[in-house]
Write a structure and sequence with these properties.
Length: about 575
Amino acid sequence: MGHDGWTSTGELPREMEQIEITPYSITEQAEVLDLARHALISLFEGKTPSQLQDDADLLGIPSAEKVNITLRHASRIRGSMSAPGANLGRQVVQAVYRSAMDRRFGGPLTRWELLGTSLEVWIQIGSSELSLDARFEKDILLLGIDGLEIEGNGKSAYYKPSVAVTSNKKSAVALFEGLCKKAGLEKDAWHRSDVSVRKTQWLCLHSVSNTHFLGQELDAEAEVPVPFSDWIAESASYLVRNQDASGGTAYLYDPIADLFVPKKKTNLVRAAGCLFALSQVLQKSRSIAVGGTLKACTVQMARGLLSRTLLTDDGRRVVQEEKLVALPKVGATALLAAALSGGLLREEFDREYQQLYRSIVLAQKPDGRFMTRFGVIEERDREIDFYSGQALLVLALEAERGNTQALEMCRLAFQPYALHFRTAPASAFVGWHVDVWSQIALLTGDNAYAEFAFEQTDWLLQMQVKSHRDFRWVGGFSQSGAAPKFSSIVFLEATVRALMLAVRTGDSDRTRKYADCVRSGLQFCRLLRLEETPPTLLGNPMRCKGGVALGLVDRRVRCDVVQHFITMCLVTEEIKDYLLQPAAVA
C-alpha cells in the first residue's frame, strides 16, 4: 500500500526509520485545499483574514508544525509564506494572505493574475533533529522528499522538499549552505553543534488532486497497471511537439523554467536515436493511434538527418560530424539506418537506406569487430560498447528480413564481442547487445546466443536496487552507489528483452526472476515521467507531457532519454501479459 507522508519523533538510525501514514484523511486534504482556494478568492472579493476565521474554524483540525502556501503564476513563484494559527484552518488562511502579499517575487499578487495562479498547500507533518555527525553522512537527506530547517543565534529558515527540484541545490551540502545564507548565518554554521538542523517531512496539496511530493511509495509486489500505449503515444508526441523547423527535436529542456538549454553542437547519435524510436512506433505499436501528424513529422525528421549525410564515391552514405574535420561516428549512421530499415520510412527512403546499410557492412573488420569511426581501423575505447551494438542492431534487423549476409556478419561478430564483454563487462555494452543477441537467438534457435544474452542480463541485474531507505530508488539500477537515473530505462529494456527470450525458450526460472525485476524496474522508471512532478512546479505542463527526466531530482529532459523510454515501452508492451498476470509465469 502506498503512503501519503512521513512522520518521525526524534532521530532514529536509518535502518529503523519508519514511514507513517499522513494524519489527514483524503477528505480532510480536499477540505484543506478547498479552504485555501476559497480564502484566496475571498481576499480579492474584499474580505479580510479575520473575516475568514469562521470558515477556518469549521475545518476542525488542530494546527500543524508549519503550513506554507506557495502561489505560482506563469511558471513563476509569486508568493511563498507560512503563518501561525490556533488551528490548521487559521494557519492556512493567514498563510494565504501573507503569500498573496509577498513582495519578494515582483510585488503582491494582483487581481489580473488571479485567474492563472496555481496554489500549493504545504503541511509539515514531521521533523527529526540531525546530530552533528549525521549531517555529514552520505544521503542523509532524501532529496525531493525531505525538507530542511535550521535555527541558531536567534535566526531560523526552512526549505520545502521542492527546493532540491526547482533550484540548483542538488546535494545535502548545497542545501545546508543555502539555508544558512537564507537564515543570515555563516555559510558553514551547520557544522556547529549549537546550531539546530532538522529534516522535515511535508504533505503537498495542489490543483485538484493531492499527493506527497514526487509521488507515493509504490508496492513492488502489486500488479503493474501501466498503460504502455498511452506512455508511448505521449512520449512520441513530446518528441514531435518539440520539433524545430529543421526536423530535429529539442536536445535538452528544463521543464521547471520552461526553457530549452542551449547546446553548442547537435548530438547526431542521439538525434538519430530519436528517429529510430519514432520509426519503431510507426512500425510496431498497433494499440496506439498513429495519426498523420506523427507520420509527417517522422518523415521530416528523417529528411533533416539525411541532409547531414555525405554520399561517398563508392556508394556509402555516412552521417557527417558537426566539425567536418572530425571522423564520422559509426553510431549515428547505424541508428539512422536502423530507423530507415522498415515500414513507412523504408518505402520513402529505400535508396538512402541501402547506402547507409552499405556503410555499416563495410565498417566490419575481418575479425568481426566494427570500426567506431569511419576511416580509421583502430577503435576508440569510449565508443566500442555503444557503437558496436548499434551497428549490429542494423544487421540483426536485416537478418530478420531474411538477409543471410547480415546473419553471417552477426555470427562473425559473436565470439569477439562475447570475449570483449567477459574481459571488461560494461553496462553500456549490455544496453545494445542483449537486444541484438536475443534477436539472433530467436532467429537461429542457437542456445549459445541465448546464453550470452542471459549472461549479460544476470550481470546487469546485480546493479538493480532491491531495497533502500529512499523507496524511490527501488527498481532502479545503481552504479557505484549513486542514485539511479535515466540509464535505468536502458537497462530495464535489456531486462525486458531477456524476459521475452526466457519466455520463448521455455526458461521458467529466468522468466520468473526477470518478470519480478521488470515489475520493480517499471515502478522506478514511471517516476522519471514528468507527469510524476506536481504540475504547479512545471512552467508549461502541456509542453512537458510525455517528457522523461534525467533523474528523480534533476527533472530536465534530454531527447535520447525519451527515445529510450519509448523503445522500452514498445518491447514491454509485447510481454505485458507476463507482468500483469504473475500466475502465468509460474
